[in-house]
Amino acid sequence: MTAYLRPATLAEAVAARAAHPDWMVLAGGTDLMVNANHRPEPPGIVDLWGCADLRGIVRSPDTLRIAAGTPWLEIIRHPDVNKHLPILVAAAREIGAMQIQARGTIGGNIVTSSPVGDSLPVLLALDASLDLASPRGRRIVPYHEFCTGYRTTRLAVDELIAAVIIPLPDAATHLSWRKVGTRAAQSISKVMAAAAIHVEDGRIVWARFGLGAVAARPIRAVAAEHAAARRAPDAATARAVGDALAGEITPISDIRSAADYRLEVAQNLLMRFVLNAGRA
Amino acid sequence: MQTQSGGPVGQSVPRVDGVAKVTGTARYLDDLDLPGAQHGVTVRSTIAHGTFDGLDRDPAFDWTGITVVTADQLGWGKGLAAGGFGENYIAMLDTDQPALLPMGGCIKHVDEPLALVAAPTRARALAARAALTPRQTAKPPVLTVDDALAADIKLYKDDNVFKSFLIRKGHVDDDEFEIAMAGAATVIEGTYETGAQEQMYIETQAMAAWPDAGGLRIAGSMQCPYYVHKAMKVLLGCGPDEVAVAQTVTGGGFGGKEEYPSMLAAHCAMLASAVGGPVKMVYDRDEDIAATTKRHPSRVRHRLGLRSDGSICAIDVDVIMDGGAYLTLSPVVLSRGVLHAAGPYRCDVTRVRGRAVATNHPPHGAFRGFGAPQTTFAYERQIDKAASHHGVAPWEFRDRHALRAGDTTATGQLLEASVGTDDIIRAIRDVAGAAPARDGINRHGAPVKRGRGFAFYFHGAGFTGSGEQRLAGRATVRATADGRFEVLASSTDMGQGAITIFTQIAAGALGVAPELVRVPDPATDEVPDSGPTVASRTCMVVGGLVERAARTLRLRIEAWADTAGVKGDLGALAAAMFGRKAELDPQHGGIAETVQYEPPPGIHWDDATYTGQAYPCYGWAGCLVDVEVDLDTREVALLRCVHAVDVGKAINPVIVKGQIEGGTVQALGWAVLENIVYKDGRVANANMTNCIVPTFADIPELETVIVECPYPFGPSGAKGVGEIPMDGPAAAVANALGDALGVAFDRIPVMPEDIARALRRGDA
Amino acid sequence: MITIGVNGEVRTVEVSAWKRLLDVLREDLRLTGTKEGCGEGECGACTVLLDGVPVNSCLVAAGQCDGRAVTTVEGLARRGIDGSTVLHAVQRELVVRGGAQCGICTPGIAVCAAHLCDSDALAGPGDARAKVRELLAGNICRCTGYQLIVDAVIAAASPASNQEGGS
Ligand SMILES: Cc1cc2nc3c(=O)[nH]c(=O)nc-3n(C[C@H](O)[C@H](O)[C@H](O)COP(=O)(O)OP(=O)(O)OC[C@H]3O[C@@H](n4cnc5c(N)ncnc54)[C@H](O)[C@@H]3O)c2cc1C
Ligand code: FES
Ligand code: FES
User: Fold this and answer.
1) Inter-chain contact B684–A255, Cβ cutoff 8 Å?
2) Comparing C2-75 with C78-163, is the CATH topology the same?
């Protein structure tokens, strides 16, 4: 029989985690419970669902702080997220379907750290940071340093994610998101891309491109970002961005898609984002 | 509710099982209380070809309470009465497929059943399975139809051909045929491929067996109780009365529960006899996708000889289907495929060849449409190319050359009544409207290309040729003592509405309210063999039997009432008749009428030459599809799908609409996103995450037009509707994509990856 | 021991915290209306309301339900004054409009759609049919082609349909 703890506060959750390093930390369960009948029964569960400190969205003057246990449905319905981070809403609306969005949490998506985790390119483009908690205290880690490889992260064994902190983009920053999945809904990404493109006086000052499903982990397309910076958001720049991207990613073929397709579509998406930033 | 004769027919009576289904009280196999039932699971091969050398048990595992069955311990040849079994094969058309592979036997596909496990709980059964490791020696597999035909490795007889067909019309030999083809002003040639397709019924395969009165009782999710019954008689070595097979509420079939349930029933029977009590087996989704039958992948070479006026002077079709490792129903699927391969077009010289070949894939089998969707895809792509070659609008071209009454099909069948061509052509024209603008920008700012495609097709209703005569299906309608009526037929309702339709037909013929009619779940010890629930024959053929039985019963009761001077409605008369014991039919313990199939007059079919009346009649259909392709992502959006289908007579319009739309969506999915990925003979995407079917969001609002061209020998004119909607939409999608992009898509599914590659190659 | 409010009744079960809610309902409480189509969160046949929100019961651990409220398909209809069963508007429309064929997806769809009708999910601007298609996309139906289900949900969500009749 699996033991069970439902910590009421973050402090209790951290303590429970530390006390039972071999137990399962469960949030919405939409990753951990898949095919549960074929998985080994864990000795115990630390259930983060319902832990008040891990739920909710708080706005400060220049950031949104989303507690790690907040489910997608709440993110989708939150006015501040809709207003400031529409691409996070767009991504969330495409994560599974309603039942998955009702249970799946942003923290779970980050810790599972799948190369096809849909929120992850968005967090890269928005330059999000993570607030991590352990018995040793708190630390803030920029998200782009967090994911280290195929489903590996910098999360320490005794750590939990407390929250995701996202700086609020200003009006000159164009946000874009697109998921290309296996079908129109409840689908796994073949390619997805997010962009924040800062345009001033008709020129791109900087750009951040987050990509998923084109490498072992979600990545920033740094060379493509350089190719966009300090240029007009026009067709020539778009081409330069596409070419630069070709030099920095080598997607794979698998049961869902093909390497050549992934590269071509990733290029097209970034190029479209650049052009759309010019048109807006 | 009206009660005059024919009253409920043609009305959308709510399905009789509807309330049970929406309230969750309908009991599917896994919902039944089976006290003491053990859970069975299957140990399967992991190689595509080789030998089964033995089964290793993990000595560290706690084996108490676990039963392991291998083929070698079952006492073959002794028969059920002597505590053994009969013969170790699944009796269908051939004897090649073992129910459980014996040690030393030849493994022919991945996920072939090697041993069975039963345990008091499912978790224990799964754990025990994990503690069993089959020893296998691999041999090189045959994984393509070309390798199968090369026959360097022999899987079935000398040539790996399960079955071949040749149809000739208007010529005697190949030389004469080629002369006719050489007379063409233009020859359109193409090779068309279609992929395997998973039925993806949402209730996975599920079965139970238990010892019962010295014999065995089987219950489960299935389309054809008498198929299972036949297989069990052979497997168990017993008489027809020693085993009974009952259908439970069935959560979808689509052909996938036509042959495979016999396998499951065999396994349940083996385990039930080993444990001496009830055993149930319910497949996991992953196992169901990996191990059970799918639609045959196909390759069709098609040559269309055209005169300069666009009329067709010769058609040449060569069909190859990958049958997988065992013969199962492949010959019948191939038969229907070749019989439809020339399409509903006028042509005097036609040659159709077909082969189903053996490979080391898991067996392919029945799936809605039964071979016709594959060949329809090919000919409707060809017709589109022919229209474009002649610069004629695609629908116009079809109108000009489609079969009409007075024409003959590829088998020389003269079409007389019930030819829906003109109605279908008109129905599509009436609602078509303007084609979408070719170029545009979508909500992502991406450029798009749009296009429109059509398809026109027909589908034979009922069994092929003399099939119905040979089968001689029967159905019974009986009155019960309380003045109600029951329809006894072995046709199953797996969602398509059979029991509601039967209720309506019987109520109509009896002249009573539908509420007075009941259709009990079919069990072989209670209902006559009406034949399997396949081939779009349930409404037309079995419905016809029900209508005739009901009418006969009514006449008998009314005649009795006349002489006895009793008055009242039919229920009251029947109840009164029950009071006079002498009138009762001892065999049925009541007042019952059983009728047997009688062919409509003038049916001639020659199985040797494949000529004559292939089907008693055909349904006709047309489909229009508008697509939009995103040029950034090559994703396809289906904008519109209009489907006009001639069903003869819609006994229940809502049910008919549901049948058409369900089939349409399966066809649309097959066209653009349903893709079985085989890797070394194994289904590499055997889960619902990666083996996908359309969701609510993938499908446009469907525009369904029901066309009624009555068939004189069907109940109230009805003919089949189950399969035809599956046949054509895929071709319409490919044609629309061709229209949008100027590229020929001759293989389905057309995935965005294929579109990207085609555009990169500059096929346009 | 785990205590769950199921369809308005307090139920206690002695099961592992790891057991799937789906299995607790089907095996321990013998509420077999909730179906398993995949066990992967993909098909939606196992949908129930957990504290009023639709979830896949195959992805919820029993422990997580302790002290919470679950509504299954068996809990959608209510008893009328005369003791008869009064179907939820969605159930009634699914029957009348042909939204259930084989019926195996139907409990999940009925629960999910009842939630849509009873909440404000379909209200507001925008095409209601498109909303239904987005919000029900987690429920796979292989029989109907979806059209008649969308019809049923739209009919059930219309104000007229809330003066419900009997079954
Ligand atoms: C049918 C289906 C469809 C899906 N579709 C998508 C999709 O389209 N896109 C997509 O990106 N994902 C998808 N997913 C995956 C999943 O829903 C998401 O990754 C979701 O965000 C996971 O959140 P959860 O709370 O359910 O995670 P859980 O399963 O509860 O946990 C996941 C991991 O995170 C850990 N964890 C959770 N919270 C914390 C925390 N605060 N601190 C430390 N560790 C933590 C857990 O220990 C576990 O390792 C899908 C899943 C299913 C079943
Ligand atoms: S069984 Fe839970 S989603 Fe399929
Ligand atoms: S009615 Fe059969 S799956 Fe929906």
Assistant:
1) yes
2) no
In the predicted structure, residue C165 carries a pLDDT above the cut 50: no
For the Cβ of C158 lying below 6 angstroms from any atom of ligand 3, the answer is no
The tens digit of pLDDT for each residue in C18-57 reads: 999 999 999 999 999 999 999 999 999 999 999 999 999 9
Q: How far apart are CA A206 and CA A225, in angstroms?
A: 7
Q: What angle do CA C95, C97, C99 make, to 5 degrees?
A: 70
Q: Which of B155, B96, B89 is nearest to B359 (CA)?
A: B155
Q: Which residue of B has its CA nearest to A277?
A: B445
Q: Do C41 and A3 touch (CB under 8 A)?
A: no
How close A52 gets to chain C, by Cα (Å)? 15
Residues in a beta bridge with B186: B306
Q: What is the pLDDT of residues B162-201, one digit of tens each?
A: 999 999 999 999 999 999 999 999 999 999 999 999 999 9
Mean pLDDT of chain B: 95
Looking at the partner chain, which of B19, B254, B665 has a beta carbon nearest the beta carbon of C167? B19
**Among positive and negative, which fits the CA dihedral B583, B588, B590, B594?**
negative
Sheet containing B485-488, strands listed edge to edge, beginning at the edge strand earlier in sequence: B517-518, B485-488, B474-479, B591-596
Q: Please report the ipTM that was assigned to this predicted complex.
A: 0.97
CA B510 / ligand 3 centre spacing (Å): 31
Whether B446 contacts B633, CB under 8 Å:
yes
Domain ranges across chain C: 2-75, 78-163
- Angle between helix B394-401 and helix B372-390 axes, rounded to 10 deg: 110
Q: What CA–CA distances, in Å, run from A145 to A130, A192, B548?
A: 10, 19, 77
The torsion defined by the Cα of B387, B738, B638 and B198, in degrees rounded to 10, comes to 100
Entry pTM: 0.97
Q: In a 3-state reduction of DSSP, which class is residue B291? A: helix
CATH code of the domain occupying C78-163: 1.10.150.120
According to CATH, the topology of domain C2-75 is Ubiquitin-like (UB roll) (3.10.20)
Q: Where are the alpha helices (DSSP H) in B511-609?
A: 543-564, 570-578
Q: What are the structural domains, with CATH classification, of chain A? A: 3-167 (3.30.465.10), 173-279 (3.30.390.50)
Tokens of A155: 């999360």
Q: Where are the beta strands (DSSP E) in B49-99?
A: 50-57, 67-70
Residues shown for chain A: 280
Maximum pairwise Cα distance, chain A: 64
Rounded to a whole number, what is the largest CA-CA distance in chain C? 47
* CB within 8 Å: C37 and B203: yes
Q: Please give the full DSSP string across B466-520, using - where no structure is assigned.
A: THHHHH--EEEEEE-TTS-EEEE-S---SSS-HHHHHHHHHHHHHTS-GGGEE-P
Q: What is the pLDDT of residues B596-620, one digit of tens each?
A: 999 888 789 999 999 999 999 999 9
Q: Is C15 on the interface with B (CB under 8 A)?
A: no
Residue B52: strand pairing partners: B136
Q: Tell which atom from ligand 2 comes closest to the C-alpha of C138.
A: 3
% of residues, chain A, pLDDT over 70: 100
Q: In CATH, what class is B18-27+467-596?
A: alpha beta
